[in-house]
Amino acid sequence: MLNRIDKSIPLYFSAAVSVLIFFIFVSLAVGVEKTPDPVNESSAQIQIPPAPPTNVVAQDIPNDKGGAITISWDKSADDGGGAKNVTKYEILKSTQKDAGYKVIGNTTAGATFFSDNTAPNGVPYFYKIRALSPAGSSESLPSAPAFAKRQWFDLSRLSLFILSLIIGFAIFYFIEKAKSDKGLFIRKIAGLEAVDDAVGRATEMGRKIIFVPGIMDMDSMQTIAGITILGRVAKLAAEYEAKLEVPVCTSLVMVTAREVVKEAYLNAGRPDSYNDNMVYYVTNDQFAYAAALDGLFLRERPAAVFLQGQFYAESLLLAETANSVGAIQIAGTAMPTQLPFFVAACDYTLIGEELFAASAYLSKDPKLLGSLKGQDVGKFIFLLVILIGVVLLTLNSVLGLNLPDLKVLFQGI
Amino acid sequence: MRREVPLVLTAIVGITMIIAHFLPPLNSLKDLFEDWFFIIAAFAIILGILNLILVNGNNIYRKQKGWPFGVVVILGFLIMTIIGLGFSGGKSFQDPGTPFYYLYTNVYSPLSATMFALLAFFVASASYRAFRARNIEATMLLLAAFILMIGRVPIGYWFSDWLGDALGKTADWIMDFPQTAGQRAIMIGIALGVVSSALRVILGLERTYTSGE
Amino acid sequence: MDEMANREKKTLWENLLSIDRRIIFIFIALAIALPLFFKTSLKMPVSPVVQEVYNAIESLPAGSKVLISFDFDPGSMPELQPMAESFFRHCFRKNLKVIIMGLWPQGPIQANIALDKIFRELKEEEKAVKVPRYGIDYVNLGFTAGNEVVIDRMGHDFQESYPADAKGTPLSKIPLMQGVKNYDNIDLILNLSAGYPGTQEWVQYGVDVFHVKLAAGNTAVQAPSMYPYVQTGQLTGVLGGMKGGAEYELALKRPAKAVSYMFSQAIAHVVICLFIIIGNIAFFTLRKKKTLKLEK
To answer: With 70 as the cut, is the pLDDT of residue B23 above it?
Structure first.
């Protein structure tokens, strides 16, 4: 059992950290050096100018919030070598066709695009491109007028929008429907069935349960799914009076996991058994975290290890070490690259979507189960689209037809 | 109130982020929320560091089991921070020649690489234990593993050069087709799982993470 | 006597079925370490996914701008650092302009380590070649927090994520960055990735949204999950692990670190295969014995 922290220690270390933070600011202030301005390549005497760029086209950037125009042009004939070799292009802008041009930016030789992000909506602008070389400069003819527009809807994402609506609606529909329908079937997930046994085993052996919620932050759905399972494990641990330890990799996960474990102990009627030190921060560094956990596994020889969340290369380092100390291991991740490692080294593994289904499975809440059914509708749509795509492409290549390609529908995504 | 506020906030931010993906004028709101996340996460690091120092400081103070590790943690933290911020030329601290660069290349790099290198050993022991031809599926898995392991190293080429690098080509085929097909299926399942979980969180059905039941 | 011999035999098979992991570790250590002392020239074909990456750089005209995102830390250095060095060698050989950035805090330092090595090499070996100048031939923008959001914002304007380079020089004062507004002004993006954020995020936020041309180097573990993107053309090509790095060095006709380590990797693979075979032989022998016993 972790002891409560002595009151004087926080004070002592807080003072040390304050000094350190002060030191950080001072050193940052002192450390900012003046960097010498890099040499500008200056253009020399003006003699024979290069050929001007041609075909300048200005147009509103589609599907944006407005305020931007994209300008494209064909390179100067002298871009790419020779005595009159172009060194850069300057972009000029004006509200009048024949006068008032000002340089608004430049590009290196070879470039044929520029985005002007300083164009207010609805104001027509003319653009010219100036090619510069050591021997002089020349300007293109002005472009046709263009003005920036705000688009309220990004049309390039229409297919994604429709797909999201259908899947979202399906999930929503089945959640609603599930409220009245109590008999939703969900297949057995062995890994989740084993949670009770693992906690029970730890209690019998008098050894710890270590829960690892992956190495990512709270913005990962996998971490959230892992934390959900932690809630269940913590509740069981509280009921069985088993010892739980949650070393985490990021600070936000620490804060969240503490809340969840605390609540679980409260719900189990054992708030006194909860201690903030059950959940603690180790380090953000992937391999340092793996090293710390491996050390912990070897010293504590936990009876059960839960690896639930988003894992990377540390997956096998953790799983194999926990295996070597004889811990029962229940892993779960949606990282396709790490799944083979978990399957090889752990007793049970929640594969991909099983991790996300865990909360519904464990709580048996019909609303959550309904969302799983909605998810299946999404899967069915995916299968259908894949099937149609495959048939179309096969017909095209076998019969030499020119049927529409489904790829077009999903280009904007 | 303690339960409702987080749920309402989650719903507002979540729905805004989804809508902003399709409505360009809302992009700046999306950017704002993203900035907030990084600011919160950055400040949370201070919490993490304080916790790290407290837990390890307490272990050392009470001479608990494994307290020397706590000394290493605190010393490592202080040395790297002080040298990096104070004695490594300000913003040029990452340049070759600075004390920070020296510590990075000679202490941090070898330690990290060693941890990653352990994978080679653990892969060997795990695959020795797990790869047993118990049934047809396991046998196929085993065969595929053999072809890949040998086919993707020069020895495989040396073995099957006379067959037109049959091993290497089979390995490439396994990677390109059965492997990719499996990856895709898992990716689609996961993507849908993420969508459905995210919706559950936004709709307030999933509350464990806000410490609700 | 017979019974005793039988028992000994049995324990032998049983032992082979559960070899102590430490014995396996020793064999692996030897298999990896010993070949490092031998200089061998192993032949290896360059696979198409690697050749594509090579072609993508090779086809760029001098002066083109290449953005290299270093999204890894020293942990994956053995796999990704040789790739980083090869990318630099290739880019500088072709007189391409290199913009370095990192979505991982350690990334830009890894770039500095690779550059340091390449510059020393250039000074020693290829005296004719000019050593690239900072700000003109290459620039290191450093690390910015924000993961995929950084990729997204750079698509609108680099300044949104990087107002200045790693040393604090404003981008507007760096000659190389003149005219670099966003991805429109970048000819190719290379990404060296060991996880999140990495190639997957570059594909989802860079390629899919801004239609950039992307090629990547990945750790061997992660590479398989990039194959779907290569097939769809979202990713130009991918170097997977040490093998990918070695093939790239061969494509570049400049064998270096990765090629020299391939022999170790090959032997290690063979040793792992041998252990699996031993385990299976023991497994089948014991199972046969058990069924024989049951039949009796």
So the answer is: yes
CATH number at residue A219: 3.40.50
> What percent of chain C stands above pLDDT 70?
95
Of A390, A371, A378, A356, the C-alpha closest to A163 is A378
Q: What is the pLDDT of residue C17?
A: 86
Task: Say whether residue A301 is in contact with chain B using an 8 A CB cutoff.
Answer: no
For residue A113, tell me if it sits in a domain. Answer: yes
Cβ contacts of C169 on chain A, cutoff 8 Å: 35, 38
From the CA of B85, how many Å to the nearest CA of chain A?
6
pLDDT reading at A23 higher than 50: no
Query: Hey, are the CB atoms on A345 and B126 less than 8 Å from each other?
Result: yes
Number of structural domains found in chain A: 3
Which CATH architecture does the domain made up of C48-255 adopt? 3-Layer(aba) Sandwich (3.40)
pLDDT for B105 beyond 90: yes
Please tell me the distance from the alpha carbon of residue B199 to that of residue A373, in angstroms, as a whole number: 13
Res. A55: pLDDT tops 60: yes
> Which residues between 100 and 139 in chain C have a beta carbon less than 8 angstroms from any beta carbon of chain B?
108-109, 112-113, 116
pLDDT interval class at A38 (50, 70, 90): very low
**C19 close contact with B: CB closer than 8 A:** yes
Residues A315 and A236 in one domain: yes
Which residues of chain C make contact with A286, given a CB cutoff of 8 A? 73, 75, 195
**pTM for this model (two decimals):** 0.84
Query: pLDDT tens digits for C186-206?
Result: 999 999 999 999 999 999 999
- The domain segmentation of chain C, as residue ranges, is 2-38+263-295, 48-255
A326 interfaces chain B, CB cutoff of 8 Å: no
Q: How does pLDDT run across A96-147, given as a tens digit for each residue? A: 988 899 998 777 777 787 888 888 888 999 999 999 888 788 999 999 999 9
What is the Rg, in whole angstroms, of the alpha carbon atoms belonging to chain A?
Answer: 31
Chain B nearest CA to A223, separation (Å): 10
Inter-chain CB proximity C195 and A312 less than 8 Å: yes
Write down the pLDDT at residue C288: 87
Task: Tell whether B27 lies on the interface with A, counting CB pairs under 8 A.
Answer: yes
Q: Among residues of chain A, what percentage have pLDDT more than 70?
A: 86
Residues 77-96 of A with CB under 8 A from C: 80, 88-89
Asked whether residue A195 is assigned to any structural domain, the reply reads yes
Q: Is residue A297 part of a domain?
A: yes
The domain in which residue A396 lies consists of 158-182+367-410
pLDDT (0 to 100) of residue C123: 83
Higher pLDDT, C115 or A185: C115
Q: Clarify whether residues A238 and A167 are in a common domain.
A: no
Q: Average the pLDDT over C28-50 and give the result.
A: 87
Question: In this predicted model, what pLDDT tens digit does every residue of C212-260 receive, in sequence order?
Answer: 899 999 999 899 889 889 988 999 999 999 999 999 999 999 888 888 8
Closest chain B residue to C116 measured between Cα atoms? B96
pLDDT score recorded for residue A17 = 47
Whether residues A294 and A384 fall in one domain: no
